[in-house]
Amino acid sequence: MQPHQLNPAIEPQFESVNDYIINHLGSNVPLVEKIGHYIVESGGKRLRPLLVLLAANACNYNGKHHISLSAVIEFIHTATLLHDDVVDNSDLRRGKDTANAKWGNAPSVLVGDFLYSRAFQIMVEIGDMDIMKVISNATNVIAEGEVLQLLNCRNPDTSEEAYMQVIIGKTAMLFEAATEVGAILANAPKKQQEALRDYGRHLGIAFQLIDDVMDYLSSAEEMGKNVGDDLAEGKPTLPLIQAMKVVTAEERQLIRQTIRKGGLEDLEPILALVKSSGAIEYTQESALKQADLAIDALSALPDSSFKETLTLLAHMAVHRNT
């Protein structure tokens, strides 16, 4: 079941978001429109815009701006994907060729810029300065998170704290912004705005932790990207960081060397070490703790089917194959 199918009341709104996104990809430059449609229609779950809808509904919002605001969040997310794939030299995402693999790096970066600017055009139409403040801050923090990740690449001395700082910036920040702006749009009490902000942050951390686990467990078909991509890029994610804490000195040296040089030459022995060291279970447990914190934050909201769906999403984030 897709996340948006968890709540029948959300499905018509979710379809309206999809329609809105497609209708706002127009450009006088055909290549911009072509790449925009390709990446937006490439099969993502639209989890972040769904969070906007659920947060707004959970706070009893009755207007229509949550549709356009959901599209803003999806455009920003899509822009980051286009830029990420260029930075990471990725050629596969969601089981399809990346935009940079099909059209090259320069068009991908520029269309990413177009989607960012289109998102801000829509925000101006919504006309809420508090929402603009949250989203403009989020895009800034996301960019910083990506730069931090770049600095940590091929650095085997990256700590768990430094890793967490990266994923809070590059992943959790947009989850946090999505749920917070939904509450702001509904003019919810400050306590509920803060609760939904915290929910989004913890959910985003949990989501990324499981993503990093799956890089060592899933097949390419399940992940929709190349297995071992993080290792190939020399990214010291939590499974590797934890494995280095508990393996022998010789095994630790192998992991360190692999992080420094990148590539998949030592994929099999590294996979074996990550699995035998308990690092997978450690990372999964960390994700479960974050999901629990997300669910706890929802106690500030009134009971509703939308609150229940947000709870279910937190469970789904840590029990998934893709």
From TrEMBL:
The reaction(s) this protein catalyses: 5 isopentenyl diphosphate + (2E,6E)-farnesyl diphosphate = all-trans-octaprenyl diphosphate + 5 diphosphate
KW NADP (keyword) present: no
UniProt entry tagged with the keyword rRNA-binding: no
Stated role: Supplies octaprenyl diphosphate, the precursor for the side chain of the isoprenoid quinones ubiquinone and menaquinone.
GO biological process: isoprenoid biosynthetic process
Keywords: Magnesium, Metal-binding, Transferase
GO molecular function, one term: all-trans-octaprenyl-diphosphate synthase activity
Annotated PROSITE patterns: POLYPRENYL_SYNTHASE_1, POLYPRENYL_SYNTHASE_2
Cofactors (names): Mg(2+)
Descriptive protein name: Octaprenyl diphosphate synthase
Native species: Neptunomonas japonica JAMM 1380
Domain of life: Bacteria
Pfam families tied to this protein: polyprenyl_synt
Enzyme class, first EC level, given as a word: transferase
Primary gene name: ispB
Protein family: Belongs to the FPP/GGPP synthase family.
PANTHER family on file: ALL TRANS-POLYPRENYL-DIPHOSPHATE SYNTHASE PDSS1, GERANYLGERANYL PYROPHOSPHATE SYNTHASE
